[in-house]
Write the structure tokens for this entry.
Amino acid sequence: MKKIALIIKREYFIRVKKKSFLLTTIGVPLFIIGFYAIIIAISLDESGGSDKNKIAVIDNAQLFNGKIENSNPNIVFSLIKNETESNYIKKYQKAGFDAFLFIPNDSIAKTKSIYNLHSSKSMNLPLMSSIEELINEAIKKKTLIANGINPEAFQKMIHPVELENTVDTETGQKKSFADVAYGVSFACGILIYMMMLIYGTQVMRGVTEEKTNRIAEVMVSSVKPFQMMMGKIIGIGAVGLTQFAVWIFLMFLMQMAIPFIFPDLMQQINNASTTSSENISMASNIMQGLSSLHLGKILFSFLFYFLGGYLTYASIFAAIGSVVSEDQQEAQQLVFPVMMPIILGFVIMTKAVNEPNSSLAVFGSIFPLTSPIVMMGRIAYDIPNWQIAISMLCLICSFLFFTWIAGKIYRTGILLYGKKPSWKEMIKWAVKKS
Amino acid sequence: MDFLSLHHLKKYFADQKAVDDISFNIKSGSIFGLLGPNGAGKTTLIRMITGIFYPDHGHIDFNGQPFNPMLDSTKIGYMPEERGLYKKMKIGEQALYLAQLKGMSKSDAMASIKKWFVKFEMESWWNKKVEDLSKGMSQKLQFVITVLHNPQLIILDEPFSGLDPVNANLIKEEIFTLAKNGATIIFSTHRMEQVEEICDHIVLVNKGKKILDGTVHQVKQDFKENIYKLGANVIAEQLMTGLFEVVKYEPNQLLLKLPEYTTTNEVLNYFINHQVKINSFNEVLPSLNDIFIKIVEDTTATRKFESIQ
């Protein structure tokens, strides 16, 4: 055991100390976070304390009845009376306005009209649409009154419908956030897929390196080949877990930091129902959706399926690494059949996130070679616990089975130089008694 | 006392009898030569002794006890013919790691590494990587790593290949010192002049079988062909006798082959009676190289693949 620990320690630290590990573990998420921070900062800028636009309005049609109800804090309207459009063009800048809006007197009667917003420099789109909305509302109100309809009564008549899905379970009802579950499932599935491939091939490369460096023979005179293989697999797996831990920590940190960096955002999310901004109500929906998911269960499953899937595939990759020589072509040929179930799992996962309870999805999430990926694609939805239990059991069994087989191939392969063995020979090694 | 005893070891692979019923003993503190042509089964034999392979049949006694690979592997230092170290790992860390894998504590390992690095003038290598070393340097490092944990049994497979005479001598001296301090050394090589110089006892294997076993002295005696070198000026007519055969004739030196019934004194008497002035007369023993070639050529040169049921 002490020797395995030594091997794990070496395999772990030699990778964690590398600059590339630091870069991918801390650099990449920081880059992504920074990127999103910039996006959020820019999108918040619309309501943030940026320049207020002073706009003069010549309301010839009396659309606003002498008073403009304005909810956009970036715009300050001033009604100007007794001026014509052509005259005021020369004056509004001197009067301290950024722009002036001219509303002709025939505006209500027309079905479509173009108003002119004069400005010294071009106006931005959100501002324009905000003004447009204001005018449209005013025209609607005027038209309703002209047709003898009380605008407030009308507002009550039209209310938008939102569809919500409630899932009935034995323990009661709860709201389902299909879109959030979809996103989380897909992200988890892809992450597992990538981690399995990245760390699996790292194991393979590590084993091939030991073999071609001929350190293997020195090593096996001190430790058993199986200890060597498991030490490498566990060490590299620990690197993967470290990476996860750092990422989760960074995510947590980000969640803590966001309210301090963008105090407005949280406030707006909390007031989502009262504000009109669509992005923010979506964000609030995601937040609610996330809190409705069993994050603990997802995290546990993620760790379990990552470890189970990784250990299963890493032992196969280790066995492959032990039989090939420097020739990468040879490795490619052997890796291909191993890649197929992984890719198959990925394909089933993309289906499973849409139809989590289809028979294909259920099969894929129980079959141990695809289950780590497919099950993560389903886990965010409410799926029966017995399926999870069977799937986990199958994965543990397959991990034990493949490690046992791979250990036997590894033991022979690591000391064999020259020609690549055929599948038939490898199967012989695998079934041979020790 | 025998440090290592091999009893009827057999190891068959799918298409070869790599080791086919080999037994021999190695004395404690001796330098033992394991010889054989390429593909004779030496490496397989060594792998069984180091616990890498289990024999299909037979058993090994290690220091008087049945060999237990788990426990005894820490008492063995093995330097394989194909050198191997982690290329990208720092030399100091690597030596520490491999010594710890041999069961040393960190502090013991450090002390031992320091001692050997000083002895071989390698202190400045600590933070270098193996890929920065020349072939000879990495060879030295490999030797140091093999003996770091004070093994009782040291197995060296071609330890001098790639070394210049100065460094080869350095390592040779160390091998003698280690043996003097009680370590048993198995030395595997094709270089027979090194074997003659270093080894006490040799075993020659070919085609998976042991074909020679004995001390260097004994083996030479066994294979001597009664050839004597005579330093003297002899004229051709004086050689017309049935006492001996002339193998080689040079103006002042003769190689004579004596038949079994002739004694050396008879030959000397013959020349003395013929008034020949003798400068020297000594027996010529065959070199191990000659013996090696003779024996191996007797058995068919290369082994063929055969199917084994």
In short: Chain A has two domains: 53-155, 177-431.
